[in-house]
Design a protein that fits this description.
2 domains, Glutathione S-transferase Yfyf (Class Pi), Chain A, domain 2, Glutaredoxin, globular, about 55% helix, four-stranded mixed β-sheet
Length: about 230
């Protein structure tokens, strides 16, 4: 059976992408959570992963002793291993576009990821309002997300970015979480898409687990302090 190593579900956006993809696609796997304790090289977290991946990050997918790291590489590996699941769109041009937007997410949206770290359990609308006022790069990232999602939903007639569930929706699920946590302003079409994503069984299962963790990590919390 496949084994997926993930971090704290409340905070680990990259883990969420791989976990949601496997769960929503009904691919059997065993999940192993490696708790965030610190991010330095000597941390228990890093030491737990050093025999699996040279980068010491999650997620890591292990298939019969073979490790694959980085979310996009994991997604491609799963798409090739399970072609019957149609994890990418079937149409060649739609498939290329889905790969394009996933790569854009993988390498971009730096302001959103920096200023609005994923925190499923938190509700920080006041922080979101201040960030939208003071961070033009964040506003730019949000504009791009709105334009991207709106265009894809129009082109493929929803309810998800390419009609049915694909890798692209798994990749943007953590973005939906960020937009919700910080109450960033989006048009009705985008909020409707977010509702569809949160209703996916794979996403709902991840969110439920994140809420149940109750594992406050100070170094993942730039806007709150432990009570």
């Amino acid at each position: 059976m496949l084994k997926l190593y993930v971090g704290n579900k409340n905070y680990s956006s990259w883990s969420m992408r791989a976990g949601v993809l496997l769960k929503e696609s009904r691919i059997p796997f065993e999940e192993v959570k490696v708790r965030f304790d610190a991010l330095d090289a000597q941390s228990t977290f890093k030491q737990s992963l050093r025999y699996l991946t040279p980068v010491g990050k999650v997620p890591v997918l292990v298939d019969d002793g073979f490790a694959v790291w980085e979310s996009l590489a994991i997604a491609e590996y799963l798409a090739e291993k399970f072609p019957d699941r149609h994890l990418w769109p079937r149409d060649a041009r739609a498939r290329a576009r889905a790969r394009s937007v996933c790569a854009e997410m993988h390498s971009g949206f730096t302001a959103l990821r920096t200023h609005c770290p994923m925190n499923i359990e938190a509700s920080l609308p006041h922080i979101g309002a201040l960030l939208m006022r003071d961070q033009p790069a964040l506003r730019s990232d949000l504009e791009r997300i709105v334009a991207m999602w709106s265009g894809l939903l129009d082109e493929h007639r929803g309810p998800l970015l390419f009609g049915g569930f694909t890798i692209a929706d798994a990749f943007f699920a953590p973005v939906c979480s960020r937009l919700k946590t910080y109450a960033l302003p989006v048009p009705e079409k985008v909020s409707g898409y977010m509702e569809q994503v949160f209703a996916l069984p794979g996403v709902k299962a991840w969110v439920d687990d994140a809420l149940a963790e109750q594992d406050f990590r100070d170094f993942e919390e730039p806007y709150r302090v432990s009570r």
